[in-house]
Design goal:
Radius of gyration: 21 Å
CATH architecture of the largest domain: 3-Layer(aba) Sandwich
CATH class of the largest domain: Alpha Beta
Shape: elongated
Number of domains: 2
Order of helices and strands: HHHHHEEHEHEHEEHHHEHEE
Strand content: 15-25%
Mean pLDDT: 97
Largest sheet: 7 strands, mixed
Number of strands: 9
Structural class: alpha/beta
Number of helices: 12
Helix content: 25-40%
Amino acid sequence: MQSAEARRWLAGQLAAAGIDEADYESCLLLKAVGVSALDLRTAPHQQLRPEQREQLSHWLKRRQQREPLQYILGEAWFYGLRLQVSPAVLIPRPETEELVEKALPHLPPGARVADIGTGSGAIALALAAQRPDLTVYATDISADALAQARANAEALGLNIQFLSGDTLEPLRPYAPFEALISNPPYIPQQNIAGLAPEVRDFEPQLALTPGPDALHFYRCFAAEAAAYLRLGGQLWLELEAPLAQQTAALFNAPLWHELQLLRDLSGHWRFLTARSGPAS
């Protein structure tokens, strides 16, 4: 099979399986077996080796079952960083890149920052890569997720202090911080069944939904996070857009001030930021 023919075949098979970006994904699969986009343009009649065809067929079968491409290839890109991902961690999303982008300019020089529920380490690693002056901590309750995050930090040569435990608790010996940042599980439990198969059937439920109370982690942050921050310290959160106003209503004086809801690039209320303590 020639490379151009393989691309058409893969795209057709993926489209038939309901994959929206079938042509794009066919190129990514070919790239993963050593056939680049340049090769497809300049050498479209290049014959695939038997081992390349076998690998593509194996990956195709998995993708036809709607397994996420990132898990199949074992990698995802986040804020310019190549991260290893597996079913132990949530696949990093573009919206979370926006959270990092919004927070970065506001973090003071030399700040101590903690990423709560780090998963693959995406947020913590992006902060450390962009701001070497920061001291970055990252927590997760999942041992498998922490192992993945540590592997990513090692591969990227970034220094993160990883801590095991639930939500804020592992940060207690290291407080206070200048900033806390988190993309916690926030999808309402009743909405899980309606998600795309890639998300519903393959990504870790622990990272998707907090269970019956969609605001569980935000209640925790509203009540307890200020105690882990210096006075005037920053909190940055990603949230469920339809619950943005309910989420914001949890963050009240005197624990919090300068509360803001921020929109994502799609125009949805996706982020919350606030400062700890009473307004001066």
